[in-house]
Queue: 2 jobs
Job 1
Amino acid sequence: MKVIETINEFHKTRNNITNKVGFVPTMGYLHEGHISLVKQARTENDISVVSIFVNPTQFGPNEDFKTYPRNMQRDLAMLEPFTDYVFAPSDKEMYPEGYNTWVETRGITEVLEGAIRPGHFKGVTTVVNKLFNIVQPTKAYFGQKDAQQVAVIKKMVKDLDMNLEVVVCPTLREPDGLAMSSRNTYLTPEMRKGAPVLYKSLQKAQTMVEEGEQSVTAIRREMTDIINKEPLANIEYISFTDNETLKEVYHVKQTTLVSMAVKFGKTRLIDNIVLG
Amino acid sequence: MKVIETINEFHKTRNNITNKVGFVPTMGYLHEGHISLVKQARTENDISVVSIFVNPTQFGPNEDFKTYPRNMQRDLAMLEPFTDYVFAPSDKEMYPEGYNTWVETRGITEVLEGAIRPGHFKGVTTVVNKLFNIVQPTKAYFGQKDAQQVAVIKKMVKDLDMNLEVVVCPTLREPDGLAMSSRNTYLTPEMRKGAPVLYKSLQKAQTMVEEGEQSVTAIRREMTDIINKEPLANIEYISFTDNETLKEVYHVKQTTLVSMAVKFGKTRLIDNIVLG
């Protein structure tokens, strides 16, 4: 495994690779969810590349950029068995003085996470575009946990004609159902105990649909009840949308994405499933 | 020479090319200036690619998108001796329904042409980004005539870490000094006769600098006088800026770009030189 810190060196390295490159962009503080992406990238390609970069431009001014958990040594140890190249640039390498080019996908970034975190997806599309230009992957791997991010990146890749395939992998969960996330580390033991309520409500939605329920109103009511029984949980949104366009739906279809954000104190947890 | 009309087919073709690719993006209606770029692209690379696409998103609502001159048959005949692949997509191929991703380089797009043509450079960076993703060139060739375009594209390539080199080639001129441009075809014979006044004023600036003049005010005064002697010419701007940052300068340096836009009736002509 080779760790590369500059764009220039990565470009030079990449110019000598003609094999298939599988790429997993991350913000580090890795968990089993990330590792499952890396394993799949390695299986489906000749070479696996992982980037570790906490991207400042996707955090709002009052968000957790400074406190976002970081542990490069641990990350590298976890990646070592499965990874050929790690790209770990500094903030200044990615955004040098005078940096001023932005990639923006509109139409699907104004809702859900984008509505609550203005500018977030502009930061995401910009950094992922840059990382794709640096790594030039054959396939890039993302977790379904960030459902809107997946939809936005797929749309950017399609609109900008990027010559690569976006592969979406299932959300990995703790034994009690909580979706794995680097931000879970923010939870107090009490919050952590209540956090599986997100997935419980999603499972309830799935069961209701399997039993024939199609009304979004009815399903949302049941989900809200389940989450509100947990005193530390505060619902930001429970949303039913088309999985690709993220347009709101009122009757459940095969491609309906149920996504949610729930706050425990200052910590926002997100989760989702595709129904049907 | 092979003509390719779809992104998908170009990607497939490109995946089988490991040689150096030289790329010349054009809006067609080719002249000797374009051909000189193609010749250089062919000389410096193994394979030459030319795109022909009149990009709707870089024209303002009151600009000449519909009347922009087009002649695909003539263009292909001119390219045939020097070109391996022509990429000639339809508008719908490049901007299908629901298209909504935009690449924007800020800081240097608000002045000069960008000030007069709002949104123009957003259209330019978006389409050039797409074309670079489709063609994946080793080197891309642009004419110095569009000086701001060159600066903007260089900045976009640098900011977005695109793995290619932007090569800038000298402006080709008619025998009387008029910079070659597809839009010269709009000029009436009378306007055409007066049009070399742009280059005459630029030559005057060059001479003054060689003779020791450094004051932008003094040079601009002489240039303005020369152009205003031509009754059909209306100056939009004569601008002295740093060649890279496009920040205004008041004393001439080695890297000072003198650029101008002059209207003849409804036709805008632009021209420039780098002083020193």
Job 2
Amino acid sequence: MRELTNDEALHRLGSVPFGRVVFSQNAMPAIRPVNHVVDGGAVIIRTHLGAALLRSVGVVVAYEADAIDADSRLGWSVIITGYARRVQEAGEVHRYEEMLQPWVDGAMNQLIRIRPRMINGFELVEAREVVVT
Amino acid sequence: MRELTNDEALHRLGSVPFGRVVFSQNAMPAIRPVNHVVDGGAVIIRTHLGAALLRSVGVVVAYEADAIDADSRLGWSVIITGYARRVQEAGEVHRYEEMLQPWVDGAMNQLIRIRPRMINGFELVEAREVVVT
């Protein structure tokens, strides 16, 4: 296992279309899969979670994405932690709505930006492999 | 999108080798990918997280696994929420250590059982598909 640099981690995150947002709901840990884009070093999600996540807006959430192959047991995982805030500027809302097509039916009008305060990424590499970093 | 029954959800969870445990760490949401087995209706994980997760043992955690195809945008996600407790009975420890081989190097001596109090699962189906439940 090797740690990814922040740049590597954000690059990996941007290379996949979805991940999982982690937040508190009624003082309990909650997690929901959503699709995302990475833009300007931040993660943008569009959610139908409504009240559940919006209560968390302005508070700290985590966001995780991974690509781990169950057979080879190789892959990577990236976790960012940061404040979730609604995207409200009209131009940005329009642009992100174009970029983020909802995967499920239903109104998905809330765009949330998670700006990382912490970035943690790791890569699962073969134990015998020599990793040159 | 259709909801899975509890039985369907646990069956899906048991069909994949890894997921993500969600807990609070220093009052912030935290998430780590780990591998798991489903046994007796509970999720068993073996973790190298040490102090990070062990502080959560006896408190509520969430556990999520999914299999979503990025191209077809079809698949499923299951989330259980429940108390995390260490598995300490010697026979169980031995059995689960056989079942759960660590994917990364390092001591992974903590076996944790998460017994679901809530089970939430959904399946992403094609919008035009008629689902007979």
